Amino acid sequence: MANAGNHHQVTAHRAWACPDEHDDRCREIAARIEREHPGWLVIWGPYSREFWAFAYRHVPSGTLIHAPDPQNLLTGILETETQASRNH
Fold first, then answer.
1. What values do phi and psi take at 40, rounded to 5?
2. Is residue 15 a contact partner of residue 69, using CB atoms and an 8 Å limit?
3. Total structural domains in the chain?
4. For every one of its 88 residues, what pLDDT tens digit does the chain have, with 9 covering 90 and above?
5. Which runs of E-coded beta strand occur in 1-88?
6. Which pTM does this prediction carry?
7. Three-state secondary-structure class, residue 19
8. Does residue 67 contact residue 16 with C-beta atoms inside 8 Å?
9. The domain spanning residue 20 has which CATH number?
10. Rounded to 5 degrees, what are φ and ψ at 3?
11. Most buried residue, 32, 47, 59, 85, by most Cβ within 10 Å?
């Protein structure tokens, strides 16, 4: 699923989205994902209304994943890690 420049966008219907008043909750979710997946910097983008994951270990440098919901972000992280492990 990764494309040129190690940028990975998960396309999904926006069935799950954090309303404005829940930005703090989305930041908590991003922090939890980051703790559970070492090697990734994970943030909630309040302007983009998406979760973003920046890889800094175990996958090609510059890898970036974003998704509108945490489950699709996790899917992208796991797929990227699996693909990277196959290439080593």
1. -130, 135
2. yes
3. 1
4. 444 445 555 544 444 555 566 899 999 999 999 999 999 999 999 999 999 999 998 788 889 999 999 999 999 999 999 988 888 6
5. 7-9, 40-45, 50-55, 64-67
6. 0.74
7. coil
8. no
9. 3.30.720
10. -120, -170
11. 59
